[in-house]
């Protein structure tokens, strides 16, 4: 039901020029035989974990690995059309996105391993503003960002979402804010980790689905409210650890 709902919602918005924040060219999926050797060690490990988790949730079948490879390879090629070249020694500014694409993997699971539906959804989704915040590889070396922003290698999620979480935390949960200050850690570091991983390993699958759906339906600012909600939920534990 969720798959159908977000599919129809995104399809409807992506057809309306007023709702399309990013312009994307046409892309035809490559049905090339994806060889595992072409994938980085991080991607191989991520695919293995995604497939194992998908089978545990009874969402994926035995041949799911090939489908996920197909999706990830095509996403990389599709997004490459909207990238610019930046000469830098920073690992995060090399041609390939340094991490694993947890958002695309999450959508693959929501679509029960249907690779065509997943890819179609991601292509339409990439036109919407919310894609910049939920799908981190979306803005990797993106021509939609100023060169000065790109050269720093800091993703907009960090200086937009994570920054606003810190501002809200001061007002909403001052004790948690103080605890972080005393620890020498910043809440934005933790938030960036959560958001990059789509809350995998932190929330149950149902909650991950709710997080993705709420941000798509209600807007990217709900990413910030989700992080604040998690900090509120963890407040007693955080304060206990600070005392100890």
TrEMBL record:
Protein name: BROMI protein
InterPro entries on file: BROMI_C, Rab-GAP_TBC_sf
Organism: Lanius ludovicianus (Loggerhead shrike)
Domain BROMI C-terminal Rab TBC-like as annotated: residue spans: 1-243
Name of the encoding gene: Tbc1d32
Classification of source organism: Eukaryota, Metazoa, Chordata, Craniata, Vertebrata
């Amino acid at each position: 039901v969720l798959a159908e709902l977000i599919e129809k919602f995104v399809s409807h918005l992506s057809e309306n020029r007023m709702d399309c924040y990013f312009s994307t060219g046409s892309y035809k999926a490559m049905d090339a035989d994806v060889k595992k050797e072409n994938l980085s060690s991080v991607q191989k490990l991520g695919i293995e974990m995604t497939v194992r988790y998908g089978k545990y949730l009874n969402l994926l079948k035995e041949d799911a690995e090939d489908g996920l490879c197909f999706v990830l390879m095509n996403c990389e090629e599709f997004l490459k059309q909207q990238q610019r070249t930046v000469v830098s020694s920073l690992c995060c500014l090399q041609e390939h996105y340094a991490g694993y694409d947890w958002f695309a993997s999450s959508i693959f699971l929501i679509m029960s391993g249907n690779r065509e539906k997943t890819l179609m959804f991601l292509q339409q989704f990439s036109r919407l503003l919310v894609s910049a915040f939920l799908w981190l590889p979306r803005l990797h070396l993106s021509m939609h960002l100023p060169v000065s922003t790109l050269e720093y290698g800091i993703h907009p999620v960090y200086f937009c979402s994570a920054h606003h979480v810190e501002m809200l935390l001061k007002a909403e949960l001052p004790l948690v804010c103080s605890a972080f200050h005393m620890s020498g850690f910043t809440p934005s570091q933790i938030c960036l980790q959560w958001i990059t991983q789509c809350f995998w390993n932190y929330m149950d699958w149902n909650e991950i689905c709710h997080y993705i759906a709420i941000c798509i339906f209600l807007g990217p600012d709900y990413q910030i409210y989700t992080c604040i909600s998690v900090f509120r939920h963890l407040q007693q534990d955080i304060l206990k650890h600070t005392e100890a």
